[in-house]
Amino acid sequence: MRDLLAEELGDAGFSVQATGSATAGLELARTEHFDLIITDLRLGEMDGFDLIRGVKTLPDAPHVVMITAFASIETAIKAVKLGAYDYITKPFEIEQLLLVVDKALTERVLHRKVEHLQREVDERYGFANIIAKSQSMRDVLALVQRIATSSASVLLTGESGTGKELVARAIHYNSARNKANFVGVNLAAVPEGLIESELFGHKKGAFTDARTDKPGLFVEADNGTIFLDEIGELALPLQAKLLRVLQEHEVRPLGATKNQRVDVRVIAATNRNLETMLADGSFREDLYYRLNVIQLDLPPLRSRPEDIVPLAEHILEKLSERSATAPGPARRWRLSPEAQHLLLAYHWPGNVRELNNVLERGVALCQGEMIADDDLPSQVREKRSADFLGTAVARRMTVAELEREFIERVLEDEAGNKTRAAQRLGLDRKTLYRKLDEYAKDRASTRAPSPSGDGE
Q1: What is the set of domains in the chain, with CATH numbers?
Q2: What pLDDT, in 10s, does the model give residues 408-447?
Q3: From the CB of residue 181, how many other CB atoms can be counted at a distance below 10 Å?
Q4: Which residues neighbour 8 within 8 Å (Cβ) at sequence distance 6 or greater?
Q5: What gap in Å lies between CA 412 and CA 433, rounded to an integer?
Q6: What is the pTM of this model?
């Protein structure tokens, strides 16, 4: 039977190895990779149940299909409870077994794809993906970590392009709701006449174009999170309906006669001043306080220059990873010192979104792997002669940090010639060498891991 199955499965295109005992099979599974094990129940010194138990202790354990002539419902239940994928009884047709094998391997492939996608989501929206070198962003990230496990409503405020959706997704994917949907909607992009149907759904025939039932985004986000971007654009009548949903945890689709219960965490975002809108009556006060249980104000990029270069390097790393899967040679882009200085001097009215666009342009124009100042757009290059002291003030640099950067820039401008640099700085060479040695030691100590193992 073993030889027959190995031959038939091999003819069907599978790579097969056969062993004469469960002990030998388990040892083989420990040393080589298999996607599926087909086993009998009665195996001598170790039965099929013992084999299943042993297989399930392996990393990335293969599926197990049990074949036996000793068929009973108790045996089948026990095998499945122990972790067998399926159970087939003798006598059987080979086509029957091939169907089970195809099904098991297809499910295994799908499971791996799901795991891969989940890892990508975890990597993309994990806290490590939020660049926070500046104190203002460290404070934001600390609060995000604290509130992720809560179900309280969150209001994200800040200029357009500061990363409000990224923070919203980080809150969701690091919460207990991460197995359910994250549903985002830009309220400014949906025509006013369709927002109610989009959010709460409709029944067939509720209006002229309602040809089928539509559940709505709140139902789609049930047990998960809904992200209401540009909440300040919501008209007053719809604000009242949204408030009712938040208070009662129920939605009523257009044309329906009954409410539907929903359990949804709401994260709203706006770049408008809602307090000003409260004062002029264009935003409801009761809705504001229902949404604003926890407020996170994301600072603009120009107020956290410490994050600009780390953010740029992070974006370039992602672009480099993307190039590795695209046709042509893989490239790993980096910024020239001149390009870094221009990025630091620019005021970034479009915030992180603009930085991302600038770097994508630089990658497209770059001749090699080093993005030079000439690869940046004109509005960034115009800051070539930016006020060095003004930039230092914006970066909240200390006198020691300012001295260090000035010395390093002069040395860089002199192509590393320490004699000429010392003359320009008005320092003797020994003093310059001592300072450069101190800077090198500081960098080495910064790169070294802390005793506690804590990282950024």
Answers
A1: 2-120 (3.40.50.2300), 127-299 (3.40.50.300), 305-446 (1.10.8.60)
A2: 888 877 778 888 888 888 888 889 989 898 888 877 665 5
A3: 18
A4: 94, 97, 98
A5: 14
A6: 0.62
